[in-house]
Design goal:
single chain, alpha+beta, Jelly Rolls, four-stranded antiparallel β-sheet, 19 strands, transmembrane helix, Lys_sp_deMease-like_dom, chromatin regulator
């Protein structure tokens, strides 16, 4: 099946999406082989039909499937057709030539007479199929072809064709009519008239429309239209004469092209009328063509009248115009032939020949040999005119264009004389030739005079350049002038009073001298110039070596090189660079002396800047090595201090850690700064303290800023504590949504079990997101282990990562850093800050010791020591299930039963060693109970009571203030821990925090236990290898003895071998285990009998207590 394409849709797509269509697609849209363009080309007759005729002017698209066929048919009006297969399977065609069209029709009528009797125009309906073999058997010639994708198939007028598709494909087809189709179109109208078939368009109207504008017709088309118009006029005269003989005299003009086709069709033959038609006044609904005037109606001839488009006088006028258009080419050709061959002896002007060429272009004459001769003649004349204009134009124009030679000038003169057109510029060429010949004579005379005058030669050279012709004598003049000018430049460059020229100028002079013609004076100047250039390059190379050498030379050597190079009359860039480097080195030495002899030690930044500058200088400097050692020592001290204070992967700098936290009062600011530090863009604490780069060089500024920062830090943390204390607790059962909610470092709101509150800023965090204290370890060394039930000594103090920014080393470590700092001859901002921090810590330590030495606090410390001693001396023969009790305090619960006498006898003694065990030992099952120590602690949480001290408010307030200031210090002090124990003992135990710490510590202990087992296995394997190595010699001897025994016929007993194997394996096992004692102290073992009852219990001796860091690094 097929469907219609519309040129309107094509035009819409072109102009609507013109910006999206590339240039090559535009080219194909207007290409002649485009089936949308072919019917409306200038050489196609259909371009003169304004209407879009479906199937003829507008292509159809055909989608075929396997064995889908198209019947025997010919095109409308017997026009040409062209079919293009875009893609798909081939299409098979069967065709009959136009000469056998009537024969094919007769064969089909003879074979199927019944069909043609009922439908005479059956073959025009595309419904008739007949086997090509049948047609060929009756003498009809049939040809066959296969059309593949990308191929065209063209059918000629009245050439019957049919075919089928070999598969799925896609094709496009359209009609077109050339000039040779016009006779066939006229015959088709006569054929349609006999068959009474409707016409697609009026053939007479098409001919008259083309004849009305003959100048727009192609020449071949105009000739064909003239012939058809002549036949049509003769036929129209004959038909109108017949109408007049019938007695019809009435007539009126009618514009048939304005009527619809169905209103101007002949009632008899269905032909579309245009030139004339016969109508009746009494029967206005119909008309007939002049071939059927007797078939109009039965009315009288007086009632009938003639309707005509043109009179018989107008038709010959149109025919005459066509004749003029058809014969215009012959007239034009005669004119061109006479002009080119100069048959009349008169040369035409250039304008006359150009007019003939324009006439051919405007009238669209076909390309011919005569037209090509005319165009060649015009092109040759234009080239000559262009050359002449170049000769007579100004001097600037002649210099820019290539200059012709004298020979070419004579050839141009001869060429202009041989052209068939008159050239008035020939006189200008003769004048130029005469000037050139006169110049040649004058130049030869000047060159022959000795010695030649440079001024005369220069003037003659300029005169020759103005001629615009390449003269041989001008080249000799140019050589003489170049030699004289070059010698003058060399003399000026080497003159003592002249400014020194650079090496580039000398090299350019040598290059220029090599290009000019040789002469004795030129050769001598070149030799002198080359010698001077060689010496200068040698000194340049020596200076370059001093500038680029790895081993730098001292200033004295450089000064000697510069003094010697001053005697060369050439500017040397490397020598100048060496001068500049030496000047910079001297200025650098002066800067070093100034900074070293100042009132204070130089700053590290200043020394680094001087070292960087000194390293870039190509001069050997003794002071540079000293500065490098000082900078290296300062960096080493800073790195040691950073390792002492900074945590691993810390986002703070050492100076920020040593300085007070300037924005401690803003929770939002601290958190945003934490995130900004993690991302890498933030402001440092030194900037927030108002310290610029220049202030850091002044010790007084650093101290003043540090003191101000201390007070701001304290005020800020108090404000932050008040704000965070007002936030709802995450441990509360019911909380209301509020904007003032704690936010963890992970960005989420901490809620429920597992949340910890910072003891400094009072904010809440997830226990899994921060480093938490180890509950079963102590933060300070002690010679004795702490009783398990002394809960106020448990390490439950938690500082968030926003408050604890460093490792917080002990004061002794800091003092060693200060001692090393005093030996540095360099000032560092970090050193100034460390001194301020140390002074701050020592001042706080003195205040803390004074507070701890007061009478009230001393008494409280004595009570704690007595209570701790009492818990440590309790007998250890009680069962774990018994509830512990504490000595009563004045503020204890009066309903609490029990006293110190009722405390468990065995549990404290048994569990007092837990704190001294290793990580994988702490989670080991308690003997006889199957529980780990962490489980025992969890079971004891509900039984903890407190407070154990009556801490008055007058004593508590100073201690809390000291605790606050001590927590702000990035230093670890024992007094801080003592104050913390006093404050803990004076308040009830924080059971929720202890429970949270226990839950967070259990997974870690499990991992430690697994790692401990793996480590133990690794130790056993290593010990086995060592034991096997020691026994290798004994095994060799035993093997030798065994061989001797086998040779002597003595076989060892199997039981003995098995016993020896078992003994060896047991020895290996015991050796690996004996070197790893589990407990230090008594070596009692733990045994059970077969019934599972405990026979004896171990006696555990407390281990030495080791200090552990309070919190892990973030």
């Amino acid at each position: 099946f097929g469907f219609l394409t519309s040129s309107f849709v094509q035009r819409f797509c072109i102009y609507r999406f013109a910006s999206l269509i590339s240039l090559h697609i535009f080219y194909f849209l207007s290409y002649g082989w485009n089936l949308n363009v072919m019917p409306v080309l200038d050489q196609s007759v259909l371009c003169h039909i304004n209407a879009d005729i479906s199937g003829m002017k507008v292509p159809w698209l055909y989608v075929g499937m396997v064995f889908s066929a198209f019947c025997w048919h010919i095109e409308d009006h017997w026009s040409y057709s062209i079919n293009y297969l875009h893609w798909g399977e081939p299409k098979t065609w069967y065709g009959v030539p136009s000469l056998a069209a009537e024969q094919l029709e007769e064969v089909m009528k003879r074979l199927t007479p019944e069909l043609f009797d009922s439908q005479p125009d059956l073959l025009h309906q595309l419904v008739t199929l007949m086997n090509p073999n049948t047609l060929m058997s009756h003498g009809v010639p049939v040809v066959r072809t296969n059309q593949c994708a990308g191929e065209f198939v063209i059918t000629f007028p009245r050439a019957y064709h049919s075919g089928f598709n070999q598969g799925y494909n896609f094709a496009e087809a359209v009609n077109f009519c050339t000039a040779d189709w016009l006779p066939a179109g006229r015959q088709c109208i006569e054929h349609y008239r006999r068959l009474r078939r409707y016409c697609v368009f009026s053939h007479e109207e098409l001919i008259c429309k083309m004849a009305a504008f003959p100048e727009k017709l192609d020449l071949n088309l105009a000739v064909a239209v003239h012939k058809e118009m002549f036949i049509m006029v003769q036929e129209e005269r004959r038909l109108r004469k017949a109408v007049l003989e019938k007695g019809i005299t009435e007539a009126e003009r009618e514009a048939f092209e304005l009527l619809p086709d169905d209103e101007r069709q002949c009632m008899k033959c269905k032909t579309t009328c245009f030139l004339s038609a016969l109508a009746c006044y009494d029967c206005p609904d119909g008309l007939v063509c002049l071939f059927h005037i007797n078939d109009l109606c039965k009315c009288s001839s007086s009632r009938q009248y003639l309707r005509y488009r043109y009179t018989l006088d107008e038709l010959p006028a149109m025919l005459h115009k066509l004749k003029i258009r058809a014969e215009s080419f012959d007239t034009w050709a005669n004119k061109v032939r006479v002009a080119l061959d100069v048959e009349d002896g008169r040369k035409r002007s250039f304008e006359e020949l150009r007019a003939l060429e324009s006439e051919a272009r405007e009238r669209r004459f076909p390309n011919s040999e005569l037209l090509q001769r005319l165009r060649n003649c015009l092109n040759e004349a234009e080239a000559c005119v262009s050359q002449v204009l170049g000769l007579v134009s100004g001097q600037d124009a002649r210099i820019e264009t290539p200059q012709p030679t004298v020979t070419e000038l004579r050839v141009l003169l001869e060429q202009m004389g041989s052209l068939p057109c008159a050239m008035h510029q020939i006189g200008d060429v003769k004048d130029v030739l005469e000037q050139v010949e006169a110049y040649q004579i004058e130049a030869r005379e000047a060159l022959a005079s000795l010695p030649p005058s440079v001024g005369l030669l220069q003037s003659l050279l300029e005169k020759g350049q103005q001629l615009g012709i390449e003269v041989p004598e001008a080249y000799e003049l140019q050589q003489q002038v170049e030699q004289a000018q070059w010698l003058d430049e060399v003399k000026q460059a080497l003159a003592p009073s002249a400014q020194r020229g650079s090496l580039v100028i000398m090299q350019e002079l040598l290059v220029t001298g090599a290009k000019i013609a040789s002469s004795p004076s030129v050769d001598k100047a070149r030799a002198e110039l080359q010698e001077l250039l060689t010496i200068a390059e040698r000194w340049e190379e020596k200076a370059h070596f001093c500038l680029e050498a790895r081993q730098k030379h001292p200033p004295a050597i450089l000064e000697a090189i510069i003094r010697e190079a001053e005697n060369i009359p050439v500017y040397l860039p490397n020598i100048q660079a060496l001068k500049d480097a030496l000047a910079k080195a001297q200025a650098w030495i002066a800067d070093v002396d100034e900074i070293q002899n100042g009132d204070h030690y130089p700053c590290l930044d200043d020394l680094e800047g001087l070292v960087a500058i000194g390293r870039d200088l190509p001069v050997g400097l003794e002071e540079l090595r000293q500065l490098e050692v000082q900078v290296l020592t300062a960096h080493s001290w800073r790195e040691k201090a950073s390792k002492t204070f900074l945590k691993k992967n810390s986002c703070y700098t050492l100076l920020e850690v040593l300085c007070p936290c300037a924005d401690a009062g803003s929770d939002t600011s601290k958190r945003s700064r934490w995130i900004e530090k993690e991302l890498g863009f933030y402001r440092s604490d030194t900037e927030l303290l108002g310290l610029s780069a220049q202030d850091l060089r002044d010790p007084g500024s650093v101290i003043v800023a540090f003191k101000d920062g201390e007070q701001k830090e304290k005020e800020g943390i108090l404000q932050l504590r008040r704000m965070n204390s007002s936030k709802p607790s995450p441990l509360a059962s019911s909380r209301t949504a509020s904007s003032a909610t704690s936010i963890c470092v992970c960005g989420q709101v901490p809620a429920g079990v597992g949340a910890l509150q910072c003891d400094l800023c009072q904010d809440w965090f997830h226990g899994q997101c921060v480093s938490v204290p180890r509950l079963l370890s102590s933060s300070r060394p002690s010679s004795t282990s702490s009783p398990l039930l002394a809960w106020w000594e448990w390490d439950t103090k938690f500082l968030c990562p926003l408050c604890m920014r460093s490792r917080r080393p002990r004061l002794e470590t800091i003092l060693s850093l200060l001692v090393a700092l005093q030996r540095l001859p360099v000032r560092l901002p970090e050193g100034e800050a460390l001194q301020c921090l140390t002074e701050r810590a020592i001042v706080w330590q003195g205040r803390a010791r004074q507070a701890l030495a007061s009478e009230d606090v001393t008494a409280l410390l004595g009570q704690l020591a007595e209570l701790r001693h009492q818990l440590q001396e309790e007998p250890t023969n009680c069962r774990l299930e018994e509830s512990p009790t504490y000595p009563a305090t004045p503020d204890s619960d009066p309903h609490r039963e029990g006293s110190g006498k009722d405390m468990p006898k065995q549990a404290p003694g048994l569990l007092s060693n837990v704190d001294s065990m290793t990580s994988h030992e702490k989670v080991a099952p308690v003997q006889g109970s199957g529980k780990t120590c962490l489980e025992v602690l969890s079971s004891l949480l509900p039984q903890l009571t407190g407070p154990v001290l009556n801490l008055p408010e007058a004593t508590r307030a100073p201690l809390e203030e000291l605790m606050l200031e001590g927590d702000l210090l990035e230093v670890t002090l024992d007094e801080n821990h003592s104050i913390w124990q006093l404050l803990q003992a004076g308040q009830p135990p924080d059971v929720e925090r202890i429970r949270t710490l226990l839950e967070l510590e259990k997974p870690e202990h499990k991992g430690n236990r697994t790692r401990g087992r793996a480590l133990e296995k690794r130790r056993r394997r290593q010990q086995q290898k060592i034991d096997l190595g020691r026994k290798s010699k004994d095994l060799v001897q035993e093997e030798l003895q065994s061989k001797k025994a086998r040779n002597s016929g003595i076989k060892p007993k199997e039981g003995q071998e098995e016993f020896e194997d078992e003994t060896d394996s047991e020895n290996i096992f015991l050796t690996s285990t004996d070197h790893r004692p589990i407990l230090k102290g008594n070596q009692n073992t733990f045994h059970q009998n077969n019934s599972g009852s405990v026979v004896s219990f171990p006696s555990l001796t407390p281990l030495l207590h080791h200090s552990c860091p309070q919190q892990e690094e973030l």
